[in-house]
Amino acid sequence: MTINKMRDLHPNDSGRLFRAMIESILVEGKVYYQKSDNRFYLCQNIKNGDAANNKLGYRFSWTVGTGKVYDIESHNVREFVFLSDAIDTGSFKDFKVGDEVIKDGVVYSIIQSYKDKLFLLDPSTNIVEIKTSLFDEGFRLHFPEVNKEEEDIDLSDEDFFEVESESGDEE
Fold first, then answer.
1. Matching CATH number, 89-141, of 1.10.510, 2.60.120, 2.30.30, 1.10.20
2. Which pLDDT tens digit goes with each residue over 65-122?
3. CA–CA distance from 102 to each of 19, 30, 77 (Å)?
4. Cβ neighbours of residue 137 under 8 Å, at least 6 residues apart?
5. Domain boundaries, the chain
């Protein structure tokens, strides 16, 4: 497995796999860039911190502020490394029709594949043909932000069983 050294984070890093120590606890997950507040989050299943709008399928997120190395470290994160790009996004053949990819802040939709070519649709509805690896061209999978307007409700065991018995599941 290839491991890359710590550096400042960039919006195109959103969705990349990482490994780090958060408050001396080893975590693995994915980086998420939240455009609305220009902050980066480490999405993972171990350390609960500031909540990102989209946790990329993980249980928790931990902010690392602007994503600058000094900011990452000031949020009690050490030994941050990206895991191999081949693992988290793969070659262009791992991208498929229907995926959204991002490059330089522009989101493209993959609309067609034919042999070794992918056809992308940009926001201006221009079709772009890519013959090489999307990853090598600087494209990354795009994870759109999720607007979280509903508030999470915590139910105790008693609340859960009360709801269950009210639904007529009693024997």
1. 2.30.30
2. 999 999 999 999 999 988 764 444 444 446 677 777 888 778 888 888 777 777 888 8
3. 23, 16, 27
4. 103, 130
5. 11-86, 89-141
**In the structure encoding, which two tokens stand for residue 47, read together?**
């350390």
For residue 11, which of 37, 42, 32 has the smallest C-alpha distance? 32
Reported as a pLDDT band with limits 50, 70 and 90, residue 21 is: very high
Average of per-residue pLDDT across 11-34: 92
Contacts of 133 (CB under 8 A, 6+ apart): 91, 92
| Structure-derived torsion over alpha carbons of residues 23, 39, 151, 16, reported in degrees to the nearest 10 | -70
Sequence-separated (6 or more) residues with CB below 8 Å from residue 164 = none
